[in-house]
Amino acid sequence: MDVLYFAWVRERIGLPKEKVTTDAATVAELVAELRAREERYDLAFSDPAALRVAVDQELTDFDASIRNAREVAFFPPMTGG
Amino acid sequence: MDVLYFAWVRERIGLPKEKVTTDAATVAELVAELRAREERYDLAFSDPAALRVAVDQELTDFDASIRNAREVAFFPPMTGG
Amino acid sequence: MRIIVQDAPFDFGQEAETFANGRHDMGAIVTFTGVVRDFRGGGLNAMEIEHYPGMTQKALEKIAEEARCRWSLGDVLVIHRYGQMTPGEKIMMVATAAPHRKDAFEAAEYLMDYLKSRAPFWKKEHSTGGEAGWVAAKDEDEDALTRW
Amino acid sequence: MRIIVQDAPFDFGQEAETFANGRHDMGAIVTFTGVVRDFRGGGLNAMEIEHYPGMTQKALEKIAEEARCRWSLGDVLVIHRYGQMTPGEKIMMVATAAPHRKDAFEAAEYLMDYLKSRAPFWKKEHSTGGEAGWVAAKDEDEDALTRW
C-alpha cells in the first residue's frame, strides 16, 4: 500500500510517500511497525494524539482496519481556512 | 413642530408631513389630540402597539416627552434589510 | 467605516472586493447581501422601499458604532438602498473585517438583526396583478435582537 | 455547487458577484473570505499551504453536502488555495445562498468550522527572518465543531 506523510510528519520522516508491504491489520499496528524501523519514524509517531490518519482518503482513527487499504496518510491536525 | 408619517400610517392619514401646534407634553398626549381631529387620524392610530415613534429622529416610546421637540415621526415596525 | 444610503443600485462585487483589499491585519471578511426575492412561483413585480431620510443615516451609524464597540473589528461597511427594485436586485449589503472569523461573523449578524428592526426602512410589495401591500414585521426578527 | 481547489489566486469580487447574481428565489447571500494576516507589527514573509491532493476535493464536497442537508440552501461555493501566498492575499472563500438570512449565516459558519479542522490543509509560516514553522491547530477550532 501507499503510505503518505504531510506537513511536519513528512518533514520528520523525510519523504512524502512510500510503498509499504505489511501484515498490519490496523492503523495502530502499522504505526508500531513503522516506529520499529528507524528513529526518524519513532520520532514522527512519538505522540499519536498529535496525529491524524486517513485511510483511502477518509479521515478515521488509529483503530481503523487497513485490510485491503490502498492508501494510508498521516498528518498533524488540519489548519485550513 | 413637524409631525411625519411613514408607510401605511402616511397612506391612512393621507400626507407625509404637517406642522402641528400643540400643548401635548408626551407622545401619547399628541396621539390623543390627533385622534380627536378626524376619523383618518383615529383609524391610523387605532392600534398603538402596531406603531413606533421617533422624537427628533431617535426611536423612543409613547411616554416620551415632546417638550422642545422639533420633529415627531410615526410609523409601523421597521422592515429593513 | 462607510455607511451609504442611496436609491441607485450598487456594485456588490466591486464593493466586496474594495472592502476586502489591502488589509494585512484582518484575517476574516464577512459579507451579507439581501436580494429582492420573488414570490414563490413568481408574481412580484416590484419592491418599493420607503425610508426616513433625516434619521436613516444616523440610525445605521449608531448600529455600526455599537458593533465596533462589541467586537474587535477593523472595518464595517453598510449600504442600503431605497426606492423601487425588481426581483433579483440587491437591496443592501453589510461587510465586516476582523482579525478572527468569530468576530466577523457575529458582528455581521448583529448588524443585520438591528438593521432589520431598528433602521427606518419599510418595504412594500407590488404584485404583477396590480395589488400592493406593506411587508409586516416578523416576530422572529424582533426576537432575534434578544440574543445580543 | 462549486468546489474549487487551486494554487492560483482567485478574484474575490468577481466570484462574489457571479455567485450572488441571477437568483430570484434566494433572499440572502453570505460570503466569508480568509486573508493571509501579517504577524502583529509585520514579519511574515510568506504563508505556505500544503494539502492532500487526492483527498481535498472530496473532503470539501462532503462538508458542503452536509451543509446542504442541514440548511435550506440554494447554492454553495468553496474556493481554497494551496501553495505560497503573501500577507494580504486571499487564502479561501465560501459563499452560501438561502431564502432566509439565518440559514445563509449558519451554513457559512458551519462550512468554515469544518473546513478549518476537517479539510486536509496545513499552513506553514515563513518569517522575514528566515524561520519557518507549522501553524498549530487551535483547541478553539476543534471546540467550534461541538456546536453543530
| Helical content band of chain C | 25-40%
Terminal Cα separation of chain C, in Å? 22 Å
| Tally of helical segments of chain A | 3
Which overall shape of chain A is indicated by the principal axes computed on the Cα atoms? Answer: globular
CATH superfamily of chain A: Beta-grasp domain
The assigned CATH architecture of chain C is: Alpha-Beta Complex
CATH-scheme architecture of chain A: Roll
Strand order in space, largest sheet of chain C: 1-4-6-2
Order of helices and strands of chain A: EHEHHEEE
What is the CATH homologous superfamily assignment of chain C?
Answer: Molybdopterin biosynthesis MoaE subunit
Query: What assembly state would you assign to the polypeptide chains in this entry?
Result: heterotetramer
What's the alpha carbon Rg of chain A, rounded to whole Å? Answer: 12 Å
Annotation, overall tally of beta strands of chain C: 8
**Total DSSP helices of chain C:** 4
Specify the CATH class of chain A: Alpha Beta
The whole-angstrom Rg of chain C is: 16 Å
Secondary-structure-based class of chain A equals alpha+beta
Q: Would you give an account of this structure?
A:
The complex is a heterotetramer, with 2 copies of chain A (81 residues) and 2 copies of chain C (148 residues). Helices cover 30% and strands 23% of the residues of chain A. Chain A has 81 residues and is α+β, with helices and mostly antiparallel strands. Chain A has one domain (2-75): Beta-grasp domain (Ubiquitin-like (UB roll)), CATH 3.10.20.30. Chain C has a single domain, classed as Molybdopterin biosynthesis MoaE subunit (Aldehyde Oxidoreductase, domain 3). By secondary structure, chain C is an alpha+beta fold. In chain C, strand 7 and strand 8 (132-134) form a beta hairpin. The model of chain C has no long low-confidence stretch (mean pLDDT 94). The longest helix of chain C is centred in the middle third of the chain and has 18 residues, at 53-70. Chain C contains 4 helices and 8 strands; from the N terminus they run βαββαβββαββα. Chain C has a 4-stranded mixed β-sheet with strand order 1-4-6-2, sandwiched between helices. Chain C has a 4-stranded antiparallel β-sheet with strand order 5-3-7-8. At the C-D interface, helix 1, strand 2 and helix 3 of C face helix 1, strand 2 and helix 3 of D.
